[in-house]
């Protein structure tokens, strides 16, 4: 069920002004974060995997191969795993805050590197676009990918904190999540 909600949230996306239009914010990581808190990181990653599989099956990909879905899954992975690791060590609101910060930083750095070495070159290959120079790729990373992921992580963290603050006690009672 969380995967279905995550897929629907993925469809409600929006670009950030001043950044490349192909970079869009959505809130589909929030159900995966709830799954992570309730059932652990494997459940959160399962939500991410199912969400992206549904997206590829239903919406397809401009490249014919699921590069965008793979990139979204990897962004979710690099956001969720540090969040889960920190939250499992510090099961409090402090752990949630540090986990969100760690996830945002991890996602931003990892996606910058993955875009530099794999994702952007794959897009240019599969879309039959001219290959970008190293300077152009660096410019896209520094001016687009890195700030986008920092902003995305921050926005997701703020929205998650607003939701989590309201459902924390319910999670503790309904699902017997201790120190959620």
From TrEMBL:
Primary site of residence: membrane
Membrane topology note: Multi-pass membrane protein
UniProt-listed InterPro entries: ECF_trnsprt_substrate-spec, RibU
Localisation per UniProt entry: Cell membrane
Gene Ontology terms: cellular component: plasma membrane
Annotated keywords: Cell membrane, Membrane, Transmembrane, Transmembrane helix, Transport
Bilayer-spanning residue ranges: 30-50, 70-87, 96-120, 140-164
Molecular-function GO terms, alphabetical: riboflavin transmembrane transporter activity
PANTHER family: RIBOFLAVIN TRANSPORTER RIBU
Similarity section: Belongs to the prokaryotic riboflavin transporter (P-RFT) (TC 2.A.87) family.
Function field: Probably a riboflavin-binding protein that interacts with the energy-coupling factor (ECF) ABC-transporter complex.
Protein name: Riboflavin transporter
Lineage: Bacteria, Bacillati, Bacillota, Bacilli, Bacillales
């Amino acid at each position: 069920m969380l995967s279905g909600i995550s897929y629907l949230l993925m469809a409600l996306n929006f670009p950030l002004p001043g950044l490349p239009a192909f970079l869009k914010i959505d809130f589909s990581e929030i159900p995966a974060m709830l799954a992570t808190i309730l059932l652990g990181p494997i459940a959160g990653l399962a939500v991410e995997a199912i969400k992206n599989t549904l997206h590829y099956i239903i919406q397809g990909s401009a490249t014919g191969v699921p590069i965008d879905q793979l990139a979204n899954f990897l962004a979710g992975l690099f956001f969720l795993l540090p969040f889960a690791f920190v939250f499992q060590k510090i099961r409090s609101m402090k752990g949630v805050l540090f986990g969100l910060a760690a996830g945002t930083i991890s996602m931003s750095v990892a996606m910058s590197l993955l875009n530099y070495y794999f994702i952007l070159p794959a897009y240019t290959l599969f879309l039959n676009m001219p290959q970008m120079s190293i300077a152009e790729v660096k410019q896209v990373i520094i001016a687009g990918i890195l700030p986008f992921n920092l902003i995305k992580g921050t926005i997701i963290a703020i929205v998650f904190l607003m939701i989590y603050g309201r459902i924390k006690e319910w999670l503790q009672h309904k699902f017997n999540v201790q120190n959620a």
